[in-house]
C-alpha cells in the first residue's frame, strides 16, 4: 500500500509539473490572437463585435492604468515585461448564462466571461480563457464549447 501511495504521489507531481509547464507558453487553456496596430483600435473592434453579436459588455477595467498607480511602491517589480497597456472586457450573454445554469449551475463561475487585451511593441494580444476546458467533465461541457466557439468567431469576425 505504501508503494502504491508513493507511486500515486509521484504521478500526481509529474502531472502537475506538466500542467504548470503548459500554462506558461502557448497554453491550450487560453485562446490568443495577435493583432498589429494600436490597442484602442483593436479594443473598439472587439467591443463592437461582442455588442453586435448578442454579448453585453458589463465592465471595462483599464488594468494597466490601475497598476500604474503602484509603480513607485513596487519599484523594480513593476511591469517587468514592459507592457504598454492592459485592458479588459467583462461580458455576458443572457441566453448562454441561462442555458449554463440549466445544464450545471456550478459552471456559472464562467459568467460573466472576460477578455484581456495586452499591448506591446505595436501588437495587441487578445487573451480568452477557454470555457470548454474549464467545463471538462461537466454536463455543460458541450454548451461551454459552443459558447467558446461563438466568442472566438465573434472576436475574429470583428477584427476583419
In short:
The chain is α+β, with helices and mostly antiparallel strands. The chain has seven helices and five strands.
Describe the structure.
The protein has 160 residues and is α+β, with helices and mostly antiparallel strands. It has one domain: TATA-Binding Protein, CATH 3.30.310. The protein is 49% helix and 21% strand. It has a 5-stranded antiparallel beta sheet with strand order 1-5-4-3-2. The protein is globular. The chain starts with a helix and ends with a helix. Mean pLDDT is 88; it is low at 2-24.
Shape: globular
Largest sheet: 5 strands, antiparallel
CATH C-level category: Alpha Beta
Give the strand line-up of the largest sheet. Answer: 1-5-4-3-2
CATH architecture: 2-Layer Sandwich
Number of domains: 1
CATH superfamily membership: TT1751-like domain
- Rounded to an integer in angstroms, the radius of gyration calculated over CA atoms is 19 Å
Sheet/helix structural class? alpha+beta
Number of helices: 7
What is the distance, rounded to the nearest whole angstrom, between the alpha carbons of the first and last residues?
A: 59 Å
Unreliable stretches (pLDDT < 50, length at least 5) are 2-24
Overall residue-averaged pLDDT value: 88
Amino acid at each position: 500500500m505504501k508503494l502504491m501511495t508513493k507511486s500515486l504521489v509521484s504521478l500526481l507531481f509529474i502531472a502537475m509539473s506538466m500542467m504548470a509547464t503548459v500554462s506558461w507558453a502557448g497554453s491550450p487553456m487560453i485562446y490568443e490572437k495577435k493583432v498589429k496596430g494600436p490597442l484602442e483600435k483593436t479594443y473598439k473592434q472587439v467591443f463592437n463585435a461582442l455588442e453586435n453579436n448578442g454579448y453585453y459588455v458589463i465592465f471595462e477595467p483599464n488594468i494597466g492604468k490601475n497598476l500604474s498607480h503602484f509603480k513607485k511602491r513596487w519599484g523594480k517589480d513593476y511591469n517587468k515585461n514592459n507592457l504598454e497597456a492592459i485592458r479588459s472586457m467583462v461580458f455576458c450573454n443572457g441566453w448562454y448564462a441561462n442555458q449554463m445554469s440549466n445544464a450545471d449551475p456550478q459552471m456559472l463561475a464562467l459568467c460573466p466571461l472576460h477578455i484581456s487585451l495586452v499591448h506591446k511593441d505595436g501588437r495587441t494580444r487578445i487573451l480568452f480563457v477557454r470555457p470548454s476546458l474549464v467545463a471538462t467533465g461537466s454536463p455543460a461541457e458541450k454548451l461551454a464549447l459552443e459558447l467558446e466557439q461563438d466568442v472566438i468567431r465573434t472576436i475574429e469576425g470583428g477584427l476583419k
